[in-house]
């Protein structure tokens, strides 16, 4: 019988309830009352809390409810298919943390990050607490939620985070960890980018506190909405205004306003497989416009037709160099 197969197993009825709550909070119509009721249910017993911790871990690993389970639950509220889908979901919850590996092995191809994107790919996921995370091209994150905090580890690339109220019985702070330090969200929408030796934060709603690894708490900085800052492990740069260019990638666009061609090329290279560089003789050319990130070769054609540059292609277009037009 499900729920009684091993020591420490959770009662099947509680697993079913956890599955119901998981679907209810992620069907797109969850209200604050729903979240409150879920917290009340979690707090009703230690077993409820343990079942929800497993449900949360499963949701964080999958990024979204598997459609083959979610669709019968959401579309057929009284059908046998719904009961069967809920039973499967409860079974996955029961087997956390091991069973999700079998579910995702083929999709993840053995890669170790919880969630990642390939070059040129963007991905939007929803975590167990309702937080939305969009991964930019070539990005990777780990999700580490426990009883004390909600944590994302940004391994590489860039993410946009839209936090949600915590669904745990005791609300936990939300952090993003980079190689240079910690960022604590203060109820907000913000982006974080991991560069070589530096982290970059842009805040679009509310505020985020920067906590570099080697700075004392007295030197930490709270960045308000409409501002951005870069930081290393032992220093925080001066605040700068955050603008439309900082989150244009979430709409699939690259926005340039009098940008150096060298900087533009480096940004475009993050979204295009292969090698892309520009020669020093054109590095200071200024580029302006809005460009579609899903069509990098079209962007190169636009540059060649608009600016005095040429694109020299090698190895079947894998290696592209921008240089002065001869």
UniProtKB/TrEMBL annotation:
<dbReference type="InterPro" id="IPR012373">
    <property type="entry name" value="Ferrdict_sens_TM"/>
</dbReference>
<dbReference type="InterPro" id="IPR032623">
    <property type="entry name" value="FecR_N"/>
</dbReference>
<dbReference type="Pfam" id="PF04773">
    <property type="entry name" value="FecR"/>
</dbReference>
<feature type="domain" description="FecR N-terminal">
    <location>
        <begin position="16"/>
        <end position="58"/>
    </location>
</feature>
<dbReference type="Pfam" id="PF16220">
    <property type="entry name" value="DUF4880"/>
</dbReference>
<feature type="domain" description="FecR protein">
    <location>
        <begin position="114"/>
        <end position="208"/>
    </location>
</feature>
<protein>
    <submittedName>
        <fullName>DUF4880 domain-containing protein</fullName>
    </submittedName>
</protein>
<dbReference type="InterPro" id="IPR006860">
    <property type="entry name" value="FecR"/>
</dbReference>
């Amino acid at each position: 019988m499900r729920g009684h197969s091993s020591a420490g197993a959770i009662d099947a009825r509680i697993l079913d309830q956890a599955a119901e709550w998981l679907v209810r909070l992620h069907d797109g119509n969850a209200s604050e009352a729903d979240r409150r009721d879920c917290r009340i249910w979690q707090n009703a017993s230690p077993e409820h809390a343990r079942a929800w911790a497993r449900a949360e871990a499963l949701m964080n690993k999958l990024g979204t409810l598997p459609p083959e389970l979610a669709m019968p639950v959401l579309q057929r509220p009284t059908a046998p298919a719904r009961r069967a889908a809920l039973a499967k979901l409860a079974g996955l919850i029961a087997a956390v943390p091991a069973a999700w590996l079998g579910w995702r092995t083929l999709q993840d191809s053995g890669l170790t990050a919880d969630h990642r994107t390939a070059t040129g790919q963007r991905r939007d996921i929803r975590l167990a607490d309702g937080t939305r995370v969009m991964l930019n091209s070539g990005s990777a994150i780990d999700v580490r939620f426990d009883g004390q905090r909600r944590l994302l580890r940004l391994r590489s690339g860039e993410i946009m985070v839209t936090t949600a109220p915590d669904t745990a019985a005791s609300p936990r702070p939300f952090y993003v960890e980079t190689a240079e330090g910690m960022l604590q969200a203060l109820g907000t929408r913000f982006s974080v980018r991991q560069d070589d030796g530096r982290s970059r934060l842009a805040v679009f709603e509310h505020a985020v506190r920067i906590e570099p690894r080697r700075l004392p708490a007295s030197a930490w900085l709270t960045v308000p909405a409409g501002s951005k800052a870069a930081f290393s492990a032992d220093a925080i740069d001066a605040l700068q205004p955050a603008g439309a260019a900082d989150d244009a990638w979430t709409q699939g666009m690259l926005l340039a306003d009098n940008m150096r061609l060298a900087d533009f090329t480096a940004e475009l290279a993050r979204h295009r497989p292969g090698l892309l560089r520009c020669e020093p003789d054109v590095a200071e050319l200024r580029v302006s416009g809005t460009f579609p990130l899903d069509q990098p070769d079209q962007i190169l054609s636009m540059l060649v037709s608009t600016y005095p540059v040429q694109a020299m292609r090698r190895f079947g277009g894998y290696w592209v160099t921008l240089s002065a037009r001869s």
